[in-house]
TrEMBL record:
Entry keyword annotation includes Disulfide bond: no
Organism in which the protein naturally occurs: Morchella conica CCBAS932
Cross-referenced CDD domains: Ribosomal_L1
Positions with biased composition (Acidic residues): 346-356
Signal peptide annotation: none
Location of region: Disordered: 1-27, 313-387
Stated name of the protein: Ribosomal protein L1
Pfam families: Ribosomal_L1 (PF00687)
InterPro entries per the UniProt record, alphabetical: Ribosomal_uL1-like, Ribosomal_uL1/biogenesis, Ribosomal_uL1_3-a/b-sand
Keyword Signal: no
Key words of the record: Ribonucleoprotein, Ribosomal protein
Ranges of Basic and acidic residues composition bias in the record: 14-27, 313-328, 357-381
Length: 411
């Protein structure tokens, strides 16, 4: 019996070795979306040793710089280390620009070690009206200690208009969440006070109006995730950790973000479209942790046939454009000729009118000269009358003065 058992095991072993990896892969694919199994010999994966080495070097650099430059603050609480922690960023560079605007929506990526602690982080939730409904849901879900403020969109517009009020609102909370239905309305309301830095940009969250448990799950997921903000460029930065994390925690977060962004093709092109991956802090240089082994794919290289066909298409397009330009010039020329033909009879009529006008000119000139003479004569007569009136006025003035003098002498 022992021999038969051993023989059955030896026969079944190779079948199990062939079938088990496939079953595991399907189970992983069903349970999670971020974990992707990659063959060990492929260059399109991260080297764990390289990631851990870069994480240790980066944390050591940030710590040494803080020790040299920072002065000890006696009023600061040593337990609250997140206030003085620096963010660690993952820079993903792609081979091509992200030109598809439909894929530029921010994406949440869960982290094994969240950046925000749900017990200490204060959250402000911006919702659609009415805000009272969401305040009650937050209380029912037991998130009152985390979500310390709920603001409706209408109240946000009315109450926070000045720069100072927006600055106070920004500094009074660690994280801002917003309903995904109104998040596009916030940039003109919050302005550069919030959108100058990425730390306080509101994160879009689905807020079900009548389900407290679902709302709690959405908020907890947002607190335990980082945001992948795609831009129409070849570079994307993702905040993956803090300088207070250990090197192992940073490495695990980097692996999770890279697998989600490139393995699941959240970033257009996936691993094949990536050019390089770097790890850095705001004050350090970028440390490379992965570089693509192939800058150009077969699709990017232009063959002789493709180049000839492309040149032929360009010449055909240019010929079509020249034909269109000639046709437009011909039409314009015809229109100008039609206009000239219409103007010619009018010119002939104007010449006839000129000849008739020349005949009428001598009579008109005589009339104008006679009228001018009459006007001059009347002007001269008016001047003479004015002189006579002036003389009489002077005589009257003199007589009045003499009468006044005589009267004064008698008195």
């Amino acid at each position: 019996m022992a021999k038969s058992k051993s023989s059955t095991v030896t026969k079944a072993a190779p079948k199990a070795d062939e079938a088990q990896p496939e079953v595991k892969k399907t189970e992983v694919a069903k349970k999670t979306e971020t974990v992707v199994t990659v063959p060990s010999d492929t260059p399109y994966q991260l080297n764990n040793e390289q990631v851990l080495k870069a994480s240790k070097a980066l944390i050591k650099f940030v710590g040494s710089k803080e020790d040299k430059s920072a002065k000890k603050n006696l009023l600061r609480d040593d337990e609250d280390s997140n206030d003085r922690a620096q963010a660690i960023w993952l820079n993903l560079t792609t081979k091509k620009f992200n030109t598809d605007v439909r894929k530029l929506k921010p994406i949440q990526i869960p982290l094994p070690h969240p950046i925000h602690d749900i017990t200490t982080t204060t959250v402000c939730l911006i919702v659609k009206d009415p805000q009272r409904n969401f305040k009650d849901l937050i209380a029912v879900a037991g998130l009152s200690s985390t979500v310390t403020r709920v603001i409706g969109i209408s109240k946000l517009r009315a109450k926070f208009k000045s720069f100072e009020s927006l600055r106070l609102l920004r500094d009074s909370h660690d994280l801002f969440l917003a309903d995904d239905n109104i998040v596009r309305m916030l940039p003109p309301i919050l302005g550069k006070t919030f959108y100058n830095t990425t730390n306080k940009v509101p994160i879009a969250v689905e807020t079900p109006p009548n389900n407290a448990e679902k709302l709690k799950r959405k908020i907890e997921r947002a607190l335990g995730s980082t945001m992948l903000h795609l831009t129409p460029s070849a570079n994307t930065s993702i905040r993956v950790a803090l300088s207070t994390f250990t090197a192992e925690q940073v490495a695990e977060n980097v692996q999770a973000v890279v697998n989600a962004a490139l393995g699941n093709k959240k970033l257009p092109g996936g691993w094949r479209g990536a050019r390089s991956i770097h790890l850095k802090s705001p004050s350090s240089v970028a440390l490379p942790i992965w570089l693509t082994p192939q800058l150009f794919d077969e699709e990017d290289v232009l063959t002789a046939e493709a180049a000839a066909s492309k040149e032929q298409k360009f010449l055909e397009k240019q010929e079509k454009q020249n034909a269109k330009n000639k046709e437009r010039a011909q039409k314009k020329k015809e229109k100008n000729q039609q206009k000239r033909a219409a103007i010619a009879p009018a010119d002939e009529e104007s010449e006839d009118d000129k000849s008739e006008g020349e005949e009428k000119k001598p009579a008109e000139e005589k009339i104008t000269k006679s009228t001018e003479k009459l006007v001059d004569a009347s002007v001269k007569e008016q001047k003479k009358r004015k002189r006579v009136v002036d003389v009489l006025d002077k005589g009257l003035d003199a007589s009045v003065k003499e009468a006044k003098k005589l009267k004064a002498k008698k008195l």
